[in-house]
Amino acid sequence: MTDNTTNAAVTHRHDWSSDRFQGNLARRRRGEKILAGLGLGAIALAFLMLAILLWTLISGGAQAFRQTHVAIEVPISAELVDPADPSEGNYRNVVRDAMQATFPDAEPSELRALSGILSNAAQFVIRDKVVADPSLIGQTVSINVPASDPYDQLQKGNVDTDSDESTRRLNDAEIAAFQQLQDQGRITMPVNWALLANADSRFPELAGLKGAIIGSAYALLVCFLISFPLGIGAAIYLEEFAPKNRLSDIIEVNINNLAAVPSVVFGLLALAVFLGWFGMPRSAPLVGGLTLALMTLPTIIIATRNALKAVPPSIREAALGVGASRQQVVFGHVLPLAMPGILTGTIIGLAQALGETAPLLLIGMNAFVTAAPSTPLDAATALPTQIFIWADSPERGFVSRTSAAILVLLGFLVMMNAVAIFLRNRFERNW
Amino acid sequence: MTTVKFTVSALAVIAASATAAAARDQIRIVGSSTVFPYTQAVAEEFANQTGAPAPIVESTGTGGGMQIFCEGIGENTPDITGASRSMKKSEFDLCVQNGVTDISEALIGYDGLSLAVSRANELDWNLTLGQVFLALAAEVPQDGAMVPNPYRKWSEIDSALPDTDIVVLGPPPTSGTRDAFVELAMHAGCESIDEVTAIAEASGNEDWVDENCSRMRTDGPFIEAGENDNLIVQRLNSDPNALGIFGYSFLFENKDTLKDVKLNGVEAGMETIASGDYPLSRPLYFYVKNAHRGVIPNLQEFVEEYMSENALAPGGYLEERGLVALPDDERGALQESVVSASAKLDVTE
């Protein structure tokens, strides 16, 4: 009886099959579905944006990974190149001779335009060959050099040959000459290693990222050497030694705020302090690295503190319990256990620094430098500033090269993040 | 501990090499973003020809370049600055004050500013400078007084012009291109309107045009599109009714998608810019510190290469990049005086 009444009362209050409950349930399930749907939608939108970004970059940049080359035979006459001093020869005219040999019907007045099919580098390629082996004078040398940008664009199908002659860079005669080279099988499109192996150039067909990659590497090295030990030192002090008082709180708040300061502010600081007071050279990766270190420092301190915090107190207490000093506890136990987390944070901080442009612009790392730096004190660009320079160049060839350079930068960022994830998965311990 | 030792020694090495590398063997060049591509070309050619270390060229803008250039004499200051206008009195005073007294000025040629529109736009555009002024100025004359610009469509300025919204993309105020545009197009356009000259005369103020015709409108039709000229080119391609203002070299490189807007009936081209018939042409300069010649290795040779016929003459490699060469007689005398550093710059007003 009693059971029955209780059950009846309960059934009365919670009648799962009643309309009210069913409606309530349906509403709650609907709410859940909407939330899940919105979340999924947000992810889908984010992926769509990423896909659009990558697609535009890849479709725009793919062309830059191939470069039109022209193979040509160059007769080197002793009239133009003095065997006694081969480096001072008139190689511009040597190229002209080569075009005359290739196009026997061409008038002398047309040769200048025809020489323009070859990259400006052709004369220097020939010079270097002849200087290396002066016995070539009087003979014919075969070279395979990049075609100049307008013809590269033509080969890549970016020129509408049916359009009105006045609307394009190349006139009909120039296109016909290029067609003739093509019919002779002289035109090839090999992989554009120059994009990675050359330093910057004003000619798109010769421009490459070597200087920027080395410049970025030097800057990151300096940044790492400074921010890593300083960041760990600061974090260890704050986490393990600092008394918990108002001063420590102020320092902590400041470090967190520092991580949110816009990077251009660090650039201005570097301009005033490193270049202004210390008289360091402009455009040097050393200064770039110092500036980036200022920026990366708070990131590393915060990551390190979190990693140190994640080490359970029992480890410290056990070590102290067997008589270890505070220093022995930190360096013998806590730091090694926290290292995977610290390294992950550091790599992510460095990856951020790699993509940073604004502070580098202020210290002049957007200079035009045609040689890769050999020390951190030589003028150089960094990858993001190189992209900045190329994006602002009028030549058509730089449009696809800008996209290609962004892809290279993204490649480095993905690699660094992959290393960070690997370290985390491989070494991080869950307590 | 080893990390700490390693870092300390690494820092020491960096500090030591910093002092060792203070002696500079590369030429340093700053200055105008318009002169930048030409200096780039000379720098690369120079390095290729001589095997000397390539000069470092930085695009800082004309004004910014002058600031750095005039900081003083010595290895920490640049040797050359490019400029898309001649040096101002205030800048020269700054230079002199900091000990940079012996400067050579080199006029390298002319550069055109162009007003262009996408080829997708079917009209054959031809504007007078007066119309350009009326379309872009913050204030225009109406019934004997200056009023905020009321024009939203080209046809409101002149019924012969198309019935489309005024959309013009141009450089921001920090740009030398903008300065040149205001001076060459806006001021000239302003003065060409009779109503304005009447108001200016009535005011009795000699600087009336400078004070009242320099402001570009900020109510929408004129869009500041940033320093990146390529961006303007791309936006013109996506909006056929928009006009863009940028350096002539960008029009030269993008002839297949853009066409010129004729100004006062004259088309932008090498010949019209050189002759001065095209109204928007401006001189380009570089300035070199004579005290650095012979001290900074290769500086003298670099100046010689910059002033050589190979670079500057018609058919030279700077023309390939869009520079409009000086007439032969003018060029010859200039080459001589710049290479020999015989004419010392003195700016007076």
UniProtKB/TrEMBL annotation, chain A:
<feature type="transmembrane region" description="Helical">
    <location>
        <begin position="404"/>
        <end position="423"/>
    </location>
</feature>
<dbReference type="Pfam" id="PF00528">
    <property type="entry name" value="BPD_transp_1"/>
</dbReference>
<feature type="transmembrane region" description="Helical">
    <location>
        <begin position="286"/>
        <end position="308"/>
    </location>
</feature>
<feature type="transmembrane region" description="Helical">
    <location>
        <begin position="329"/>
        <end position="351"/>
    </location>
</feature>
<dbReference type="InterPro" id="IPR024573">
    <property type="entry name" value="DUF3333"/>
</dbReference>
<feature type="transmembrane region" description="Helical">
    <location>
        <begin position="217"/>
        <end position="238"/>
    </location>
</feature>
<dbReference type="Pfam" id="PF11812">
    <property type="entry name" value="DUF3333"/>
</dbReference>
<dbReference type="InterPro" id="IPR035906">
    <property type="entry name" value="MetI-like_sf"/>
</dbReference>
<feature type="transmembrane region" description="Helical">
    <location>
        <begin position="34"/>
        <end position="58"/>
    </location>
</feature>
<keyword id="KW-0813">Transport</keyword>
<keyword id="KW-0472">Membrane</keyword>
<keyword id="KW-0812">Transmembrane</keyword>
<dbReference type="InterPro" id="IPR005672">
    <property type="entry name" value="Phosphate_PstA"/>
</dbReference>
<protein>
    <recommendedName>
        <fullName>Phosphate transport system permease protein PstA</fullName>
    </recommendedName>
</protein>
<comment type="similarity">
    <text>Belongs to the binding-protein-dependent transport system permease family. CysTW subfamily.</text>
</comment>
<keyword id="KW-1133">Transmembrane helix</keyword>
<feature type="transmembrane region" description="Helical">
    <location>
        <begin position="258"/>
        <end position="280"/>
    </location>
</feature>
<feature type="domain" description="ABC transmembrane type-1">
    <location>
        <begin position="213"/>
        <end position="420"/>
    </location>
</feature>
<keyword id="KW-1003">Cell membrane</keyword>
<dbReference type="InterPro" id="IPR000515">
    <property type="entry name" value="MetI-like"/>
</dbReference>
TrEMBL record, chain B:
<keyword id="KW-0732">Signal</keyword>
<dbReference type="InterPro" id="IPR050811">
    <property type="entry name" value="Phosphate_ABC_transporter"/>
</dbReference>
<feature type="signal peptide">
    <location>
        <begin position="1"/>
        <end position="22"/>
    </location>
</feature>
<protein>
    <submittedName>
        <fullName>Substrate-binding domain-containing protein</fullName>
    </submittedName>
</protein>
<dbReference type="Pfam" id="PF12849">
    <property type="entry name" value="PBP_like_2"/>
</dbReference>
<feature type="domain" description="PBP">
    <location>
        <begin position="17"/>
        <end position="309"/>
    </location>
</feature>
<dbReference type="InterPro" id="IPR024370">
    <property type="entry name" value="PBP_domain"/>
</dbReference>
